[in-house]
What does this fold into?
Amino acid sequence: MKYKQYIGIILGGLYGLLVRGISGSGNHNTAIHDYYNSYSLSFLWVLPLVISIIPMLFAKKEILTSKWKQFVFPFLSVLLFFIFTLSSGFEDWLCILIIALPFLITAGIVGTALAPLIKKRYSKKLYAIVALPFLLSPLESFIPNTLTTYTVTSKILIEADRQTVWSYLIEVPEIKDSEYQKGFFNYIGVPRPVKSKLEIVNGTTYRIGYFSNRLKLYETLATVDTLNYLEFKIHINESELRDLPTDNLLLKSESFTFENISYTLSKQSPTTTELKLACQYTLSSKMNGYANFWAGSIITDFETRLLKSLKFKIESHSP
It folds into this structure.
């Protein structure tokens, strides 16, 4: 039956959705998520391997006799998995972007290298491969994560004295849409900064950072060296996060922790100030290099756009 080969693609996508559902939201809210989570090597590399192979197991005659189908069908199965997880709310576009590279690389390996081997040495024992993520992920959980702290720093020159620049940092006036240039990450789910205010909540003074889409980050002033240095500590547990995959998988995750955010002001001339923004964070995983690539890229983009907005706002209102 010619439709059988397409059913295999659907089964591959549904299998991936099942594993993704078991992997939870990323903040280990049940005991099972100590063993199955989307931050594991098993999820990023073994799961796409199985998703890509399932169509070949289900319709081996139709697929393995065509080199074109051997190459394309693994990608179709992975892409369908992306569609299922997006439509079900397990992932959003930012999450898909982060996992896309290992998933697509694995699909390519299956289509170019493993498919010919499966064709030559096909056996019903290959069906056991569907158990791999369920077996390897718990074993992987016993391997300690690597803990690494990173710092991302961006800077900009502002045509204003330090007193003027300083007055915009602790409480940031509302940044209008016309004062902020959105980028790629904003369009796929990263909220943009709107304003910051000092507010008392339950007896504690917080610097609340307001972001688009109702995200609020609660911060406390850790170090204040007037006109020179300002450091904030982010309190994720007190913050008002969104019930979205980006917040659940990144901000609430035990694998990513904000340590502090700081501003450093340096006088360049009586009317020019260098403003430096730094974000320090800690990653805890078995793939910190890959995780930091995305964390660093997103934070660098965020810092750069915020500094440009502050520069525009300050210089527009400076005498």
Remarks:
- The longest strand covers residues 256-269.
- The longest helix spans residues 288-317.
- The mean pLDDT is 91.
- Strands lie at 146-158, 193-201, 204-211, 216-225, 229-240, 256-269, 272-285.
